[in-house]
Amino acid sequence: xxxxxxxxxxFPTASELTEALADFVIKAQKxxxxxxxxxxxxxxxxxxxxxxxxxxxxxxxxxxxxxxxYADERAVPLDHPDSNxxxxxxxxxxxxxxxxxxxxxxxxxxxxxxxxxxxxxxxxLIHEFAQKDAARFPVFDLILLGMGPDGHTASLFPxxxxxxxxxxxxxxxxxxxxxxxxxxxxxxPVINHAARVAFVAAGESKQDVLKTVLDKPEEGLxxxxxxxxxxxxxxxxxxxxxxxxxxxxxTPFKL
Length: 255
Ligand SMILES: O=C1O[C@H](COP(=O)(O)O)[C@@H](O)[C@H](O)[C@H]1O
Description:
Blueprint: E1 7-11, H1 14-36, E2 39-43, H2 48-51, E3 66-70, E4 72-74, H3 84-91, H4 114-133, E5 142-145, E6 170-173, E7 183-186, H5 188-191, E8 196-201, H6 207-215, E9 233-239, H7 240-243
Bound molecules: ligand LXAUTJHC.
């Protein structure tokens, strides 16, 4: 599988990063809608939803054309403080006119059975993608990821058996080292089939892991394994604090 080299853009301030990210998302949205009439995006939890806040002030966002999924979700009720959906609602959806019907949550009736929960979420993806694009794996227009200090991304954790999953679109973990332990996640084949994947990582706490992920990908941390197959492209939106130790070349941001 051929993958283009990641494009790493570093910004001096949080607001420069979030404004550039908003420009980038709007461009991805525009291209997708022009081609297919819809925009499929997967969001993460953690620090990511807050970084999308600049989109609330932008014109030109066709919210009714968005179909929003989760890169990972915790197996908790949708209004639970640990829920990525709850976090996205508080930090992002509450500020923008995104139709609730276009936001694809896990099925809260299935929380007791992780396998059923993951299967049901996979079926939501099949409904959205397989009939429309007839692909072996869904091709998201954009997947937005965060990265934990251990190098995990979505709910794909270092050393976990799920790192070698090759078939499933959505899988579950019941032993996440970061609480809560029970989660579902998109798998690497799905992430690496996306048209664009963008990591967002800011702050000094990400310095060491960002250096490892970008300068020593051979260590195989989960975030280093995100390498969308050509013509897909991987971007990193980072701030100068996070990028302080990174030797990998930075590219000035341009649309
Ligand atoms: O547990 C999770 O952590 C990652 C990274 O979070 P961050 O706070 O370090 O940005 C996040 O991307 C993922 O969605 C979440 O479930």
